[in-house]
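To whoever is on call:

I kicked off a structure prediction for a single chain this morning and the downstream step that reads the tokens threw a length-mismatch warning. I double-checked the sequence; it's 385 residues and nothing unusual in it as far as I can see. Pasting both halves so you can look.
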Amino acid sequence: MITKAKRGRGFNHTLTSRKNLVSGFTLLEILLVIGIIAVLAGIVILAINPNRQLASVRNTQRKSNLAEINKALYQYYIDNSRYPVSVTSTLTEICNTGATTTGHSLSCVGLADLSYLVPTYLVAIPTDPQSTASSTKYSVMKDTANKIALYAGQAESNDTVSLGNVVIPFVCGSTLTDTRDSKTYTTVLIGTQCWMQQNLNVGTLVTGVTTQTDNSVIEKYCYDNSEANCTTYGGLYQWDEMMNYVTTAGAQGICLTGWHVPTDEEYKTLEVALGMCTDRGSEPNLCADDSNNERGLIPRVGDQLKDTGLCGGRTPCGTSGFQGLLAGRYWTDGSFMELGLVTRMWTSSELSSNAWRRDLSLSFATVGRYTVGKNSGFSVRCLED
């Protein structure tokens, strides 16, 4: 006979304890596991993109440095009823120099000298984590409300590290944003001039049968009345509309603030920077001052100004960075023509009742300089003031 053993209280207690061991964790154990996971995650992230993580750490240090400088300047202002004299309304880099026996540094020409803050308000002038011995890479200004604004010019990972109402100077080669419509334009330095690399595209589309008028609304033509063409090639404008109904050469016109419609002479400066001869020439190589003709054949200035692939098979092509597109034109009868063949760009310079323009063509390596009536619709390139 087989006898079944009884399961007593001792057996049940042992079973319950084993279940608790298997299924139960204390709060301390849970927190320990979470901590280990966090550490491992940090190690993995750092291993995957260490440069980005290190850049983030440096940006945090920059924010801390700006806050430290701001606090010191605020206290200085309370004690002296003014800021150090080198803090102006223009954003200026801070000099990396401590206090001297005379109370301030004499080696900060052109820079903001904050050595007056040392040692009373700062132990030392903070410097960017990646600055050299001679530069802080931090800049300071006071805004229109006499409040301090600070900027870390070396911020990384496309992050902007600043404090207060900073007015950051534009650097040619950066992207320009039109605050009127949020469109963006890239820029390029050619010689001493900073040019937009795209034709201006601002305003409300009106059809080719409509004359652009002085009605406080910027109006544009788009090739074949298609907004998509304006997106690619920029708008086409009659001269008066482009000039915003003034006649001053070099006026802002409909360009962005800080930019203007280039004059005939400024286009000559661009052309000469690319190798065109000055004054007047002779066929076949005409020079900058020659008019109503194609100029700059030998250095092929026209091909330099066009975008790559728009030189009719000639090489090199598009080497200047100007990136001229063959945007076509609007004619006074309301028609559009020559897309992909020609572009005509206005200047802000008049000649009698006409105005000067520049032409680029698929067929020619030159730059045309002509005068034309103001009712035609041409492209606009803006030039930095």
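Update from on-call: the warning came from a stale cache, not from the record. Cleared it. Sanity check on the structure: The chain has seven helices and 17 strands.
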